[in-house]
């Protein structure tokens, strides 16, 4: 190459280099001036790279009963993760911050998590091979209990860390579960309401998560000047229900007994204040324990979601309409047994009986279908009766503040349907519709709105966000008519020919009520046949002259003997709950015998001697649990002068508290005990206690954490059976050895 050409290429090279230099320099100057690359702000990008953001989870609102008893609360759980990046241990000789020994880590975690060590080992090794900074362990590492958390901490495994989460916990288990509902944590740890009040008030209960942002170095250590930014979390609002824990407990116990003894297909029972519409107790069977979701067969709250044919309980509203219209003469007679009109193919008949010529009053007491049919067809008129069905709101949902409410259907197109509706067949209603309508009878003709949410409160400011008050929504009948219907319903219980005679008879209070025996539709058409194939029910209120409580119970297809009445399981629930609830509410008995059954005003225990308080309780046949060896009472789960029932578990805390033996205690009682002693409690299982971490007689003051384990009644029975069989085998072996 000659010199001119060489010089040309050298100049070209330097020229291109100079242009490139100018481009790069210009770009650097531009970046320096604007701080952006391709629209990305470098300072923001750098801050983002070295900034860690941690979520500050909001606490889900608590749900309480009307007296402040906790029904649903958050429970702290732990999520497990492992850091496997060696860069997280800048000084490995001094301290290991990552998982170094995979085998030891896998074996240690497997024992606590009840998992396969090889699977944990595979996760750790796979993460290392793929250059991951950390790994998690799926469901096995989520929602760990405090016991598991402490057990893993004791292993002191390098590189193993936790993040706190929450799960929903229901201290009373089965208690009103289809009212309270269910909330569960999803895979992301967010607790969400799925059923009941938990779903109905999801937006109110959930709250809003906050966040914590700060800057860190390459080793994920917090910088001294971390530019911390905190956005405070907003905890969910607390909800108080109208449910009364004591009345609900009595109801649940009665339902459980009937369920075990009679094995019915369905049970519903609701207790309401007829003057306010407040639901004091509501329960169903089948139900479920939200802490232990196994073999759930019924998620629905049948009281509000499942319409049924009500049977003869509807007759109370038929005579209410006739009385209001002035066409009901209780002394007028008619021929019972059978009633036929030209517009129907088959006659209306009374249930298996013919009583001859009787009065309409006796017809109501005997629950005569013929009497009701004649009232509607000959006296009221079908159109007028239909107007009253609408006036009692049987044509619409009640609007109760519970999810998934379904209304029944007034079946009223043809003459036969118009007649059968008068005695509760064909037409369907839900139990809550029946209760709402019945408030008009119990409350001087004024029908009130049923509700279960008492108020919603901001836990930080204690500001009441929402408060429900009693509301009269209609007046289908007058006070005079309501009084007459009450007298007629009382005669169903007190009359010698009444269908409730000697069945729904409280010891201390008069009862006004109406029995029901409804046929059940068959999937193949018509109705089921057989002694058990009915929905047996009772609509009752007490005291009869001025009802303070209203209750509706239905039991579907109980297993009863041929000579046993279907009212047996229904009356057990009604009598047991109504008697105890009225005493608990301190309603004065209106019968001649005014004995208070198993009842006492709790004595003032403040600074009283143990012997004094125990003696007073023993006089009332109440055997309290004395906690500790001290001489003076310093606390109790009962307030002074509180009216308590014989079924209540009374706890007295002395000035030297020690741990009692809780074996056999229900989950509800153990929870109450823990709250009373301010213990941090963790529960495994549900039902009745079999294990406790604090030994009997140990000091409680220095033991704030209590781990408990429970078994259901069925599990206890199986365990007892297994132990008995094992003892029998041992005895048999000993006998063989002796032989």
From TrEMBL:
The top EC class is: hydrolase
Q: What CDD domains has UniProt attached to this entry?
A: PASTA_Pbp2x-like_2 (cd06575)
| InterPro entries xrefs | Beta-lactam/transpept, Beta-lactam/transpept-like, PBP_dimer, PBP_dimer_sf, PCN-bd_Tpept
Output the GO biological process annotations, alphabetical, semicolon-separated: cell wall organization; peptidoglycan biosynthetic process
Q: Which residues cross the membrane?
A: 12-33
**What pathway does this protein act in?**
Cell wall biogenesis; peptidoglycan biosynthesis
Q: Where is this region: Disordered?
A: 718-739
What does the sequence similarity comment in the record state about its family? Belongs to the transpeptidase family.
Ranges for domain Penicillin-binding protein transpeptidase:
268-579
UniProt keywords (A-Z) are: Membrane, Transmembrane, Transmembrane helix
Compositionally biased residues, Acidic residues:
724-739
Q: What is this protein called?
A: serine-type D-Ala-D-Ala carboxypeptidase
Offer a single GO CC term for the protein: plasma membrane
Penicillin-binding protein dimerisation domain ranges (all copies):
56-219
Q: What is the species listed in this Swiss-Prot or TrEMBL entry?
A: Pelagirhabdus alkalitolerans
Subcellular location, record wording: Membrane
Q: Which GO terms describe its molecular function?
A: penicillin binding; serine-type D-Ala-D-Ala carboxypeptidase activity
Q: What is its EC number?
A: 3.4.16.4
**Primary site of residence:** membrane
Q: Which reaction does it catalyse?
A: Preferential cleavage: (Ac)2-L-Lys-D-Ala-|-D-Ala. Also transpeptidation of peptidyl-alanyl moieties that are N-acyl substituents of D-alanine
């Amino acid at each position: 190459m000659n010199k001119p050409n060489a010089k040309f290429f050298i100049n070209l090279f330097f020229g291109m280099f100079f242009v490139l230099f100018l481009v790069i320099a210009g770009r650097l100057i531009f970046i320096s001036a604007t701080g952006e690359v391709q629209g990305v702000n470098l300072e923001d990008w750098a801050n983002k790279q070295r900034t860690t953001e941690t979520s500050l989870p909001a606490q889900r609102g608590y749900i309480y009963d009307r007296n402040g008893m906790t029904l649903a609360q958050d429970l702290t759980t732990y999520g497990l993760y492992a850091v496997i990046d060696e860069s997280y241990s800048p000084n490995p000789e001094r301290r290991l911050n990552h998982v170094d020994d995979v085998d030891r880590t896998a074996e240690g975690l497997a024992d606590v998590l009840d998992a396969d060590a090889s699977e944990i080992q595979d996760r750790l090794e796979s993460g290392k091979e793929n250059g991951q900074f950390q790994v998690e362990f799926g469901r096995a590492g989520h929602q760990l209990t405090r016991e598991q958390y402490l057990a893993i901490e004791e292993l002191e495994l390098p590189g193993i860390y936790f993040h706190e989460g929450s799960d929903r916990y229901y201290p009373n288990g089965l208690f009103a579960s289809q009212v309270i509902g269910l909330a569960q944590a999803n895979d992301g740890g967010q607790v969400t309401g799925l059923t009941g009040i938990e779903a109905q008030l999801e937006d109110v209960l959930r709250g809003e998560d906050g966040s914590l942002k700060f800057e860190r170095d390459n080793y994920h250590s917090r910088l001294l000047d971390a530019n911390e930014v905190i956005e405070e979390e907003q905890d969910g609002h607390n909800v108080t229900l109208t449910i009364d824990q004591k009345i609900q407990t009595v109801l649940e116990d009665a339902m459980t007994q009937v369920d075990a003894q009679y094995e019915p297909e369905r049970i519903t029972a609701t207790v309401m204040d007829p003057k306010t519409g407040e639901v004091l107790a509501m329960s169903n069977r089948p139900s479920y324990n939200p802490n232990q979701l196994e073999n759930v067969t019924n998620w629905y709250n049948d009281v509000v979601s499942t319409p049924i044919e009500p049977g003869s309980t509807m007759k109370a509203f038929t005579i209410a309409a006739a009385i209001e219209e002035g066409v009901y003469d209780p002394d007028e007679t008619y021929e019972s047994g059978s009633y036929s009109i030209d517009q129907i193919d088959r006659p209306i008949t009374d249930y298996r009986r013919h009583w001859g010529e009787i009065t309409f009053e006796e017809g109501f007491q005997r629950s005569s279908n013929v009497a009701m049919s004649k009232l509607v067809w000959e006296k009221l008129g079908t159109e007028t009766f239909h107007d009253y069905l609408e006036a009692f709101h049987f044509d619409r949902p009640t609007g109760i503040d519970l999810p998934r409410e379904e209304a029944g259907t007034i079946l009223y197109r043809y003459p036969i349907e118009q007649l059968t509706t008068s005695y509760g067949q064909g037409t369907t209603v839900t139990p809550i519709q029946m209760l709402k309508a019945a408030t008009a009878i119990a409350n001087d003709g004024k029908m009130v709105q049923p509700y279960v949410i008492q108020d919603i409160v901001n836990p930080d400011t204690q500001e009441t966000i929402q408060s429900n008050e009693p509301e009269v929504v209609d007046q289908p009948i007058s006070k005079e008519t309501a009084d007459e219907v009450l007298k007629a319903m009382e005669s169903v219980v007190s009359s010698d020919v009444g269908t409730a005679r000697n069945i729904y008879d409280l010891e201390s209070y008069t009862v006004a009520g109406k029995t029901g025996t409804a046929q059940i539709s068959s999937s193949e058409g018509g109705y089921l046949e057989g002694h058990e194939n009915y929905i047996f029910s009772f609509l009752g209120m007490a005291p009869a002259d001025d009802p303070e409580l209203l209750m509706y119970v239905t039991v579907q297809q109980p297993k009863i003997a041929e000579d046993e009445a279907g009212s047996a399981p229904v009356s057990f629930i009604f009598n047991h709950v109504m008697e105890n609830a009225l005493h608990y509410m301190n309603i004065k008995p209106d019968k001649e015998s005014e004995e208070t059954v198993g009842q006492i005003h709790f004595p003032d225990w403040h600074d009283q001697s143990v012997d004094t308080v125990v003696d007073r309780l023993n006089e009332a046949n109440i055997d309290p649990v004395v906690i500790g060896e001290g001489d003076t009472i310093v606390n109790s789960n009962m307030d002074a002068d509180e009216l308590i029932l014989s079924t209540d578990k009374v706890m007295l805390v002395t000035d030297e508290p020690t741990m009692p033996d809780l074996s056999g205690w229900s989950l509800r009682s153990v929870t109450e005990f823990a709250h009373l002693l301010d213990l941090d409690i963790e529960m495994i299982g549900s039902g009745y206690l079999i294990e406790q971490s604090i030994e009997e007689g140990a000091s409680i003051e220095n033991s704030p954490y209590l781990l408990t384990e429970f078994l259901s009644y069925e599990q206890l029975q199986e365990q007892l059976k297994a132990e008995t069989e094992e003892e029998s085998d041992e005895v048999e072996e000993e006998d063989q050895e002796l032989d």
